[in-house]
Amino acid sequence: MRKFFIVYIFLFALISNHTFANIDSLLIKLEHTMEKRDEYDQNKNFRIKQLKSLLNKNSNSKEQQYFINNQIVNEYLTFTLDSALYYLVSNLELAKELNYSELINQCNIKIADVMASTGRAFEAYDILMEVDRPNLDKKLLIEYYKSLIKVFNEVFFYAPLADNYQKYYAQVEIYTDSLIPYLNPESDDYLAILEKKYRDERNLQECKKINTKRLSKTKIGNRNYSLITFERSLLHQLEEDEEMQMRYLILSAISDIQSSVKDNASLTELALILNKKGDIDRAHRFIKFSFDDASFFNSELRFKVISEIFPVINEAYELKSEKQKKKLRLLLVVISGLLLLLLIAIYFIHRQLNTLKQTQKELKIINDRLNDLNQSLADSNKKLNQANDQLFESNHVKEHYIGNFLSICSNYIDKMDQMNKMVNKKIANRKIEELFAETKSQKLIDKEVKEFYENFDDTFLHIFPNFVQELNALLLEEEQVQLKSEERLNTELRVFALIRLGIHDSSKIAKLLRYSVNTIYNYRVKIKNKAKGNRESFEQQVMEIDAVKE
Predict the structure, then answer these.
(1) Residue 16 has what pLDDT?
(2) Could you tell me if residue 536 is inside a domain?
(3) Alpha-carbon dihedral of residues 520, 521, 527, 532, nearest 10 degrees?
(4) pTM for this structure?
């Protein structure tokens, strides 16, 4: 049971939402139709103009004029009452000229119907009482009773006293009973009477069936559709179904506008409902539209009804407008205050921006100076690093060479000691000639030079182990130095090894390597001629060969 109840609530909410959405879309359609009122009225005026052009032909007989006038009257009946009445009076004169009683009766019945619509019900009744009822055919008799019903409907509807109301309503019932026998049970007049009977009896189910049947026989855009849908709204009003009431009032109003019916009640009723629901803007727009139509139609009765409603809606609209104006004034004050604050804020922001720009300029100058200083420091650091590298290398070379120098000196002291002992021994043994022969021989010198070269090669390559490869990288590929298997350095390499150690004077190099100055010079030129790049900077490139850092 609980589940069923939840489903029921859900479905009810869904249907309600759909109905509201449908009403909203219909209201939008109605507003679009209202915007096209001039277009529909132009079509109506065009049809009337065409009929009037036919009327102005001289060849028309009085019968033809009467027929055309009658068509013009039918166009004007729901459009402009004064014009309809004018052509009805013209037709009455033509009927009298033709001495055609049927046409005279037809005109009087229509004139009475129009006068009832303008609120002149008693004048209409007097005209109908002058009609020769016994001589009316069935068609005119139906129109006669319909006019009488309309007269007393208008009178009892606006009767101020309850007694008069009942009296006039009784006349409506009498003439309705008189009309029914002449009607076809399938005709709309008969069904309309039956629907009203069920509605008055509050038999709404049967009433709705009749109304649905009537609606199936017509379509939107004609007067009958407007009347049937308006009566359907009355049915839903009795059911207290406001959404459905609004739906059929909207459809009726759309049909009235499309058919240029100025005598309409649907839009007025719809405006009242919207005003009650709080949709003041639409209510005001709709009642003003109805007021304009009533003014154009010139029905005193319709104009009176709308004039009673218009002030109520207009007052609500003006009250809402005044509230909106107050809100707008308040918003204007608030916006003005905010604007003033904004201007003050902009002023201070502008000042801050100018200060910021000035600060940024000063910071840029400082940054540029810092960048220059940093660059100078970087250059200084680079030079310092280079100096440190050179100093490290120099210290490293000195340390290694000092160690080797001390070792060599110690060896030479030992050798001198041995030589001294050997000389003393030879002299003591009187082997002077043998001693002379040994000291005269070149072998000892050659042996010492060879040992010197080996010590130099070992020491230098210990400090610069990649010297040969890096120096060869500076030479043309086909001119690179090729060492023998037992060699570590040759004379050419030793020359540039001494240059790498900072000894650039050829005479010093010659003295150290025990060669002539010219030989050393020739070695230097020979190697430089094999260089890949600039010969003048070759020795500088040799100086850039790095020692191994420990």
Answers:
(1) 36
(2) yes
(3) 150
(4) 0.58
